[in-house]
Specification:
CATH class: Mainly Alpha
CATH topology: Cyclin A, domain 1
InterPro entries: MetalloPept_cat_dom_sf, MtfA_fam, MtfA_N
Order of helices and strands: HHHEHEEEEEHHHHHH
Largest sheet: 4 strands, mixed
Structural class: alpha/beta
Protein name: Zinc-dependent peptidase
CATH architecture: Orthogonal Bundle
Strand order of the largest sheet: 1-2-6-5
Strand content: 5-15%
Number of helices: 10
Shape: globular
Pfam families: Peptidase_M90
Length: 240
């Protein structure tokens, strides 16, 4: 899919992650995003409208996590559904006493192991604005996490990565975040990360790309694990 550079600039030029990419990374992003638009279905529902620039923006954000991994890491889902505003999700679960609970809530996004991925366009527009928030990266991080069959905060690691070190360092960061939140301190990531391990990984992922420096400063070992997993290093080395 040949898309003029001016269109990419119009769609993504205000995004700090895109601005940080060098020429080779931008070429890779353009290629993967174009292929994603050919392979996946972006479907607008409930009054949502998609134009060409918005499709490019969503696709560009979507492929950032897999720039070093490849599009095959998204092969378990085929459809991305866009709502105009928050969508209502209904969930049921059974507790340890056998009581079935029903929950109805408004969501900005949701992902299932085999798809679809659902996003609120309102939240897409608020993504990539410099505050660390990116619902597109967040939900697609969930799909990576679920490649081993469950959303547990531990995506399938590459050969040579230390799963025990991953678990140890993620738990230490979780405990540190919980302590900071309890004491009312400034947090390096959104406290939604404390919902469960899956949300912790998704929030870490969006922060890793959107605000990598504070993440590296707070939890350097976690940052290094994410560098190894995503095969990207968003914090550029300083040259003196």
């Amino acid at each position: 899919m040949q898309i003029p550079p001016a269109q990419w600039q119009a769609a993504l030029g205000d995004w700090s992650v895109y601005q940080r990419c060098d020429a080779a990374q931008r070429a890779r992003l353009h290629d993967l995003a174009g292929r994603l638009l050919l392979r996946k279905h972006l479907v607008a529902v409930n009054g949502a409208e998609l134009d060409d620039l918005l499709r490019l923006r969503i696709a560009g954000m979507a492929v950032v996590p897999i720039l070093g991994l490849g599009l095959d890491w998204y092969d378990r889902w085929q459809t991305l559904i866009l709502y105009e505003g928050p969508f209502v999700a209904e969930h049921s679960w059974e507790d340890e006493y056998g009581i079935v609970h029903h929950e109805v809530s408004e969501r900005s996004g949701e992902a299932w192991e085999r798809g679809p991925v659902v996003l609120s366009l309102d939240d897409v527009w608020h993504s990539g604005r410099g505050d660390g928030y990116n619902v597109v990266i967040h939900e697609l991080a969930h799909t990576l996490d679920m490649r081993d069959g469950s959303a547990n905060g531990a995506p399938p690691l590459h050969p040579g990565m230390d799963a025990a070190a991953w678990k140890r360092d993620m738990q230490a960061a979780w405990d540190n975040l919980a302590r900071r939140a309890e004491q009312g301190e400034e947090l390096p990531v959104d406290d939604y990360a404390l919902e469960d391990p899956a949300e912790f990984f998704a929030v870490l992922s969006e922060t890793f790309f959107e605000q990598p420096e504070p993440l590296q400063q707070a939890w350097p070992l976690v940052y290094r694990h994410l560098v190894e997993f995503y095969r990207q290093a968003p914090v550029q080395p300083e040259h003196g």
